[in-house]
Amino acid sequence: LTERQRQREKDRKAGLKAIAQEMKIVDRQLRDDRISEHSKQVLAQRMADLKRRGEILKRYGVGKGNI
Q1: Looking at the whole model, is its pTM more than 0.85?
Q2: Minimal CA–CA distance to 27: which of 50, 58, 52, 55?
Q3: Helix/strand/coil (H/E/C) assignment for every residue in 3-34
Q4: How many CB atoms lie within 10 A of CB 7?
Q5: 65: Cβ contacts below 8 Å, ≥ 6 apart
Q6: pLDDT grade, residue 4 (50/70/90)?
């Protein structure tokens, strides 16, 4: 592997880890009973966006696709 490929793979893994971490936080917030219905909708949308970003990152790697 070239240095560039190695770095891209490293960035991809780091990005996936960061997305997974954010998804954990959003998931925890969604389970909270004290938040309003509107907030839940916003968080659900955020969760969907994060999932889509994760899929794009997995498929195309860093610097590709609309992330």
Answers
A1: no
A2: 50
A3: HHHHHHHHHHHHHHHHHHHHHHHHHHHHHCCC
A4: 12
A5: 56, 57, 59
A6: confident
